[in-house]
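Thread: "does anyone have the structure for this chain?"

Original post by V.I.:
We have the sequence but no experimental structure in hand. Need at least a predicted one for the grant figures.
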Amino acid sequence: MGRSIYFTDLEIEKLIDYVSDSVELLGEAEGTREQTAEDMENGLGSAIRKLYKGRRGEKIYAKYKTKRGKGNAKTNSKSQ
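Reply from O.Q.:
Generated one for you, tokens below.
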């Protein structure tokens, strides 16, 4: 299960600026292009989409959806 983290509007804007610039730079570099594309498909894209929710530029990341089950394994409470 995920967790809730609350940010101010200023914090969200700063995160968007830094993340967008970083993803763009990494996606252009020869050695990191494939890894960046894989990361975008495996969680980074959906995280950025959530940051952009309700803001200009949101459509760029609309194709990235949160994947259920991956990385959300439940622990068996009987084994504790």
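V.I.: this helps a lot. Residues 17-66 form one domain.
O.Q.: and The two ends are 19 Å apart (CA to CA).
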